[in-house]
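Support request, please re-run this one:
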Amino acid sequence: MKVTRDKISKVAIYLRKSRVEETETDLLNHRILLEDVCKENLWKYDIYMEKGSTSSQDIEIRDAWTQLCENISNYDGVLVVEQARISRSLEDSAMVKRVLIQAGVYLIIHKHIWDLSDPIYSKMYDFNSFVGSMEYSETNHRLQLGKKMRFLQGKWVNGPAPYGYKYNREVKKLEINPVEKETYYYIKHRFLVDEWSTNQIAYDLNRRGREAKEKGEKSPWLTRKNNYWKNKTIIDLLTNMVHLGVVVSGKEKGSLHKDRKGKSATPYQKLDKSDWKVVQGEHTALKTPEEHTLILYRLQKSRLNSVSKCKTRKIYSLSGLVVCGLCGSLIGIIHKDTDDKDYLKKCHYKDAFGVKCPNKSIRLDYVEDALLDEIKQQQTIVEQITTVEDYKQELMRIRNQELSELKDRKLKLERVLKVIYDSYEQGVYSVQEFLERRKDKEEELETVRVSIDALKSREEELIKSIEQDRVARYKAVIEEYNRDDTTPERKNELLKGIIDKIVYTRAGEKGTTFNLEVKFKA
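Re-run finished. Output below.
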């Protein structure tokens, strides 16, 4: 059954780049074309445009499509340049078809209006989905085959050129970057000849490049993106096999992205070095095999020395609770045999230039005494909240404040992750850089999500929380804490029951003056 155009008054224009090689200009041309269709038919319209390339994304996690689905009831049709612009996946195409039929919305492909609830249009849509999926699979197969052939010829096929090289697109090979080469040789000399640690090298380079960076200028001593070096970055640079004049493939397999096509895709995993494929490259080497072997030997020796210094972790009363008030790092605790006392350690953090955080050490019993005073003061404050309603309002205020902060943090992390994925798609990050950045942010995001869920469920348990007497909890902690038979492990357990963290600051030269800021649990 043919659909007449007068049945349509408002449409949603959906735009996306379905191929990596497409540009913003292509998207603009599609927009002009579809807007002209709307003007010709006197249709009102809203535009939903995906940012970046979404060729490898499952449709339900695309931002613009998700928003369109939320507003689908506002439209009579969804207008696209071609069916493949929605998806070239059979699974996603079936989901789109279901959404449009359930909403009673037409699919408009340029100037052709399809009612997918009609058997004829439904079969046409399914056929086009099948053809699009086959074309996508075949194109992807040819791309992968071409990439493999170029790799076997020793050409570079793994994204941005490693530090020390630049990629010549005309001859499709790596060439020496003269500026980065000199910095690389400097790093290698400091490590192999002067026997500097990777941390020392990073601090030295950052100090050399600091003045230029602060002026907003590019420095040859800093990373390619003019950022400060880190210990991990120096290690990755020194161990990179590409500098041997070879190209490497097969370091990992499976899907790097959680939003890659096909939910049955093989999960990402690193492969053992014995499974790597190494081919002599066409580019010039920046280090010899002997230098590479010596680098690996020195790094392994350094790791073994670090491991040998580690002892079985002992639990102290304040273990895992004290953070530095100057830099936010977790502060450890140590026992000194000279006076048989426990001490908070000096803050271990160093900035990009190797400058140590000035937060100093102090005897643990001094901190414990001050902490118990803080708990008693908090007990007094709680005692002033005399009614159940006051208590409820206080808990709700704290909860809402925490929830708001967590939601803000969640939004920021989601934006950061999107930038990381987009940057990887565009070749800005290497696989290793992408994985490191993604892992840190996804772990932090998961922690935030768990915290949000916990806070939301706390609302249901609020009445139960009101029945618990916080004053009694504080009294119980103080009483048991001061008993001679209470172990450090038990003290730690008691404190973690009422305290989130203890912010400690002591940057003065003399005396035992310090500052504590105790974050109590609600």
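Confidence is low (pLDDT under 50) at residues 258-264. The radius of gyration is 30 Å.
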